[in-house]
Design brief:
This protein is of the alpha+beta class. The protein folds into 2 domains: 40 residues, no CATH class; 140 residues, Apoptosis, Tumor Necrosis Factor Receptor Associated Protein 2, Chain A (Sandwich). The protein is 21% helix and 28% strand. The chain contains 8 helices and 12 strands. Strands 3, 5, 6, 7, 10 and 11 form a 6-stranded mixed β-sheet that branches. A 4-stranded antiparallel β-sheet has the order 4-12-8-9, with no helix packed on it. It has a two-stranded antiparallel sheet with strand order 1-2. A hairpin with a 6-residue loop joins strand 8 and strand 9. The radius of gyration is 23 Å and the shape is elongated. The N and C termini lie far apart (65 Å).
Amino acid sequence: MCVSGHSVCKTCRHKLKKCQLCTKNFTKYRNLVLEKIIGKLKFPCKYEDMGCTGLFSLDRLASHQSNCSRQANRCPFKVLDTSMCTWEGSEDSVVDHMKTSHSDICFIMNQAGKYKTRICDIVKVPLWCRAVFKQDDVFLWCTKLKESHLYSCILYLGEKEEASSFMFKMTFYKVGKTGSYTASHRTCPYPNNVDRVFKNWDCVILYHDLMKQCVDADKCLRVRIEIFRPVHQS
């Protein structure tokens, strides 16, 4: 507040030298009454124009927006890396956009749900990410080198409740030797905070000593990925 009691938000306060209403100086005091009133209000999501109809209190708004399903109307790579793509469009056109504009980082699995590739430049890029298409299902495969260990997860671009019904298996091949390392994990829903997924170990981890045996002279890893629905036995 200013000395006359006028209120201004924190963002504008740092841009102004004096109160715009009375030109008097600001105090260091917060308007607690106004804060309580704001705390009882409900605010629309910033993706309202993309179809989100929810209303949220101020303390829940940021958390919702970071996981809002309507972000799918943006390029999925944009949510993971804000510098990658500025495309926005209808939900039905997301897959076509990915295949057309990002064909170099899109994989199409065979009918068995398997794909072989190489993970390269993992030391240089902050987050290695690829789109994976398995028949009618779309996934984002994200990998990151963290504290000398390789973290890898797969996000499901569909109904959040369906994400846990998929599993993925990764097989890393040794260099110059026979043998491999295999690990599996469930998929996570999209959108999701990938760093939080890695922090919670909700992913596949290839530890440093094992990774050294799989990295070739070009600093690449040969890997086979498989996505499947596990068969539940009664």
